[in-house]
Amino acid sequence: MVENRSFLDTIAATILHCQEALPHEQLVIVPNKRSIRILQKKIAQQANRGLILPVILTVNDFVESLSPLRLIPREELLLHLFDLARKTEIEKGDFSSFLNWAPAFLSEINELDLQLIDGNAIYTQLHEYKELDLTFLKENSSDFQKKYLEFYKSLGELYDQFVAYLKEQKMGYEGLMYRTVAEELRSGDQDNHPLDQKYKWSKKIWFAGFYTLSPAEQEIFYYFYQKLNGEFIFDVDLFYKEEYGKPVIDIQNKFRIREIQYRNDYYDVPKKVEVSSLNGSLNQIQYAIDLLNRIEKEEGNLDNTALIFADETLLVPFVQAYDPRKANISMGYPIYKTSSYQLLTILLNLTKNRIRYREINEEGEAPFYYKDLLNFFENQLIIRTLFDNDNDVEVLKKRIIQKGQIYIPPNFFNIKIPKIALEGKQIIKDLITFFDEILSKLDTDLSDYTILTLIVNKLHEAEQLLAPFDLDDSLLDFDSVIYLINSLVNQITLSFVGDPDRGLQISGLLETRTLEYKNLIFLSINEGVLPKGGKSPGFILNEIKYHFKFPTAQEKDSIFAYHFFRLMQRASLVYILYDNNSTVRLAEESRLIKQLRFGTEKRKHHVELSFKQVEQNQSLKKSKDSGIIVEKDEAILEKMRNINYSPSGLATYIRCPLNFYLANVLKITPPDELNEGFENNLVGLIIHSILKKLLDQIKENPAQFREIIKENRAKLEDLIYQAAISELETDQSALQQGGFVLVKKIVERQIETYLRFLLEELEKNEIEIIANEVQLLNQFETSYGTVTLKGTADRIDFYNNRLRILDYKTGYVDAKNLTLEEIDETIIDPNHSQLFQLLFYLYLYAHNQDLPPTASSQAAIISFRRLVQNLDPYVYIQVINGKEVEPFLFQSEHLKQFSELLKSLLDNILDPNTPFCQTDNWDHCKYCDFRELCEREAKSYF
Description:
Layout: H1 7-16, E1 26-30, H2 34-47, E2 55-58, H3 59-66, E3 70-71, H4 74-87, H5 95-98, H6 102-114, H7 119-135, H8 143-168, E4 171-172, H9 174-187, E5 204-208, H10 215-227, E6 231-233, H11 238-244, H12 246-254, H13 265-268, E7 271-278, H14 281-299, E8 305-309, H15 315-321, E9 327-329, E10 333-334, H16 339-360, E11 368-369, H17 370-378, H18 380-386, H19 390-403, E12 407-408, H20 426-440, H21 447-466, H22 478-489, E13 493-494, E14 504-508, E15 519-523, H23 542-547, H24 553-568, E16 573-579, H25 591-602, E17 607-613, E18 621-623, E19 627-630, H26 634-641, E20 644-645, H27 647-655, H28 657-665, H29 681-700, H30 705-714, H31 716-728, H32 740-764, E21 767-782, E22 785-799, E23 802-809, E24 819-820, H33 833-846, E25 857-863, H34 864-868, E26 874-876, E27 878-880, E28 885-887, H35 892-910, E29 916-917, H36 931-934
Parallel strand pairs: 1-2, 1-5, 3-4, 5-6, 7-16, 7-17, 8-14, 8-15, 9-14, 15-16, 20-22, 23-25, 24-27
Antiparallel strand pairs: 10-13, 11-12, 18-19, 19-29, 21-22, 22-23, 25-26, 27-28
Helix pairs in contact: 1-2, 3-9, 6-9, 7-8, 9-10, 16-17, 17-19, 20-21, 21-22, 27-28, 29-31, 29-32, 30-32, 31-32
């Protein structure tokens, strides 16, 4: 066995024993900041005497010190890019329109600069590819296609102009800074380069702890490697060299390194590795806490123990269950869980809903949405600064409920409710004014005061960023300003005061570079989490990326794999946890676990590897740590076998199994609050009712569609009253006042706009209406018996000989939420509920014997909000085919794929051994009807 010496100890010893230079004459470049202080401490400990320490820099600080450019924040880059895109007319819309493509463009050019790729050349090739793809065998291009091609043609020119502008202004993004330094070093006088002066004092440079280098980093490192007698200090183990050693070999070849000293620590350092499969993220957290308590009991402390989050979103529920004051959380606690941030979110939602009201009713002052007001008055900062006691808050909330209106006028309260501007830079000014008022009433010793001050500072930063740009309110709508605010505020992370040398260390994987620990606990080592996989944002196609030697997804995944295995190689006790029953991600162990098993079994030596499934107590229980868990007894299972499973019900389960149990199994009515259905849901009910009757008439007499539409438009007001009276079981006199006045205006506007659209659509296309508001049923076999699937399709028609299933939505629908790469586990996700619903309808239709058969079909949502905004109301399911996005056709092969997904989901629901538990994602609790019943309140240490 070898001495278990840490990598930083090795670096320290190498520096101290260097024969070519004294420590203070050496320059050390490392990957990350966290290792610098520890390395300095180890050098001092090993020296055991007074000495001047070497200069130790991160690679980013090193390159930034050489660059003539100033690194500017991403938000400022976006504003400069928008200014340029408007001047060159590449972007003719407002900032919101620009944000649809610009962030991806920035990420892409940052990557291509790090790779030293000719930006104009790669975008020119992309344009040529798109042009060939769109025009092949086609005589004429549509106006849309011409604009599409023009946009791609402009990207190369935009890149060149943007880079030239930034260089002129002496500012840049990370990739451009690296590229600029690399090109200057490559082109200058190699014997007397001006950049030499910066580190001329150094007689030796070390590059320590690097695994892979971008081409720009290679150029920079190679220059100083030659000039300053450079050497690399690698930390690579033979255990994973064959699988993940290529990047290091590439460095060896580039720098002509004779030999690399590979370690054999994974096998030689005795270790116990336990891989545990658990049911859900919360059970992972609880088990991790049990392990921490066990280690602390056996060793007396957690001084050499680290908890590594592969999925960093689990930090928040972990902090709810474990006292974080005993730990050093280097990754930072997210600000969004604080009262201050939640107040900001409430104010933004309050304003956004006032804007939505203004879109449909321009008369008078926009009122407040009642739920926004309830959230506002429940916020701890508001209670503390605007009320004398909690009872005053409850009285006011009761007044809102008793008022019986969804929208409350501003003059209803004696308390001043902030009225934030609806667009432009004034939004930020109004937020600052209100928060300053809150700060003036807070004790300066409170953590809330500190956090709110940080938020106000970020708002001032947003003001300063916008100040130099000529952006009037028409270019800077509410969503644009909120994007900037959120982007800046979300940069704030709150550190728990902990000792980085003692106690439990909590971090993400990349933060552990060059560090190591005796005891390790990894959470969420699932496929799709580590390595994450997936595609990088941007426009450049994979075929072109490959040609220009962009890093592949496999190469990016190998970086995370290296850090995972490197961290384990000198550890003695390793626990690896993964989720075997997730509803929001692939419930499968990571490929890294498979590789660990294979590599260890091939040569066990001093490694004890075991696998176990951790069973949890599944009885009904409730505690502040584990939350509510409901075991499925026979009575519950019997109810579940008799449920009709709809897409909305299944979506509820995906979001929160406990919510599904309460709403769909027990059928509990949510706690008393204002009945929002009268004003909100009634809009949808009336629209559905009117359209069903109208389209049924057109179905029976298709040739008379013009007359039918004209007749219905003429009596639209009567139709609205008839539908409302039918739904509410009331008379017309009861509808002449109150909230129905607003409902009527909304319905009139949306139906009137849609009927104009429908008339034009029927005139220009061949449309045969098959059914309206049709119920689709299917008996489905699960591992636990047969259940009934049920869905109601708003409309089924043949559109130019292609079958369509349509769903009406009164709200806005984003096309990206209906885009898929393939039918796989990713669609079983709360963010894809609309996509799941449409696929569910397509599946049910394919199994229906009473409707016309079809070889392929499409599905879309008709968004009435998009229609009134003069946008195409149809949002179809789209598929990414590797080249671009195109309409998705549901065909026979998709039946089997979707059936397997449904079976997996329903088996999970019906499995007697899988309890109903609370969601892992606390964001889903924010507006849950059962929030109070669940008593899920986030505790805070701030």
